[in-house]
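Appendix B. Raw example, untouched.
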Amino acid sequence: MPVLMGLLAGLAMVALPASGGQAPPAPADDPTVLVLGRVSDDPKSHYDQLKPLLDYVVPRMASVGIRSGRILMARDLQQMASYMRRGQVDWVTETSGNAALLERRAAARSLLVTERDGATRYHSVLFVRRDSSIRSLRDMRGHSVAFQSPYSTSAYYLPASMMLEADLRIEPLLTPMDKAPPDAVGYLFARTELNITTWVHKRLVDAGVLSNLDWGNPQRLPPAFARDFRVVATSAEVPRAIILTRSGMDPKVEARLREVLVEAAQDPDAGEVLRRFIGTSRFVPVSADDRRALDELARGVLRIRTEVE
């Protein structure tokens, strides 16, 4: 029995990477290995998105001593921050809100902005039914709103920050049937954009939030729903996605990584690689406006963590 159990354990360890998963974290003291990370609740799908980019980048990093690459998934942002602080992940791709949290936890710094489907920035759109009595953000008191998920930048961090700035208290609801407190905004997480629009259209909640990019996407906002909605507030714009590197990364490796990623948009061999990397079209430097937007977003996210969660 001990021999059999040992054999089964060995087979499990081999099968995990082969199925698109990952091996255990590598030691942080091998400077020849470049580790790409991601927070994921679907490792198989995300592995397939990340692997082509890693395979493209690693051979072009040989001049700074990189010989191989690995992918390491984290179950949540706290685990990813720990990996980065310990040097077990070198670079990650994240939304602006999560990037702000990773920076504040002294685990990472923003390297590049990711352009997806031609857009480098986006904002939140707060909407209601056309026949709603809600005319502005301040009218949300005593009403309910559907956010997407606790880690969504455009459909949680940005709109929740807007509400706090407007002196609106935010309280969680257990189900869409629950009524919001008369002196606060009640919120729920709907998980998908289509759920958000459906809940508003069916009057299960009073308001919903999408990014401006999803607002124009008929798969996220069906035209039959859109004609019954109107926008009551929009947020400031933030970078759509960020490439971050860990604090303490070798400056030569970081500089070469930045160079390889920026130049990829002009490389014919990188077209399909970028497309598979979550619809990326190119990587661009973090501008002064991007940096200000990230700093402002970070303040809002920390306020949410303190006052709401």
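End of appendix B.
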